[in-house]
Specification:
It comes from Lentiprolixibacter aurantiacus. Pfam families: DUF1801, OmdA. This is YdeI/OmpD-associated family protein. With 194 residues, the chain is an alpha+beta fold. 42% of the residues lie in helices and 16% in strands. The protein starts with a helix and ends in a 10-residue tail after the last helix.
Length: 194
């Protein structure tokens, strides 16, 4: 079933359909396994994502999940999403013609070799949660303190940022009152979005 979806992805009408097909042909010469993830073809080795191929309105390209480790002799790689992704790099193309098959294959093979070496960027350690003074005062209530401390660090951070982002003292107080029941229930500020 997944292969049908991949075929559909590559055969759909797209301004860069020929270029996308060419990238696929190059990648399929390697040992990577082709899958459809997040609505686009992703190529993996031993269930670890190595690269993906995607077409957009003005360009198409290859996304290297751990591209930060590629030597990039042609200087074609760019950071995928500036602050959000530290490891991912992309190689964009804006024309169907002129894809250097040898160069693309070289980058893909280097990405495979890096995956086999186990190269990956470790996540940055999050700094400790800085609890706003108003919340510190409220946490003198033992029930609230115990409930707050049992929350994940991410949920604690959400609550602290929520209070700190209020400009007026009055708003900070109303936000404190709003979050008490949520903390006591063990809920995060944004759980209803998850």
């Amino acid at each position: 079933m997944s292969s049908d979806k991949i075929e559909a992805y590559y055969s759909r009408e797209h301004p860069f359909q020929k270029g996308l097909q060419q990238l696929r042909e190059i990648i399929l010469k390697t040992e990577l396994e082709e899958q459809l993830k997040w609505g686009a073809p992703v190529y993996s080795l031993n269930n670890k994502n190595v690269l993906g191929v995607m077409g957009f309105k003005n360009h198409f390209g290859i996304w290297f999940f751990n591209g930060v480790f590629l030597s990039d002799p042609l200087g074609v790689l760019q950071n995928a999403q500036q602050e959000k992704t530290r490891a991912m790099r992309q190689w964009r193309f804006s024309r169907n013609e002129g894809i250097d098959t040898t160069a693309v294959l070289s980058y893909v093979e280097e990405a495979i070799a890096n995956q086999k070496k186990g190269l990956k960027l470790s996540p940055e350690r999050k700094k400790e949660v800085e609890i706003p003074m108003l919340l510190q005062t409220a946490l003198k209530d033992p029930r609230l303190k115990k409930a707050f401390e049992s929350l994940t660090q991410g949920r604690q951070r959400e609550y602290c940022e929520y209070i700190n982002s209020a400009r007026q003292e009055k708003t900070k107080h109303s936000r404190i009152e709003k979050i008490f029941p949520m903390i006591l229930q063990g809920k995060g500020l944004n759980d209803h979005y998850r």
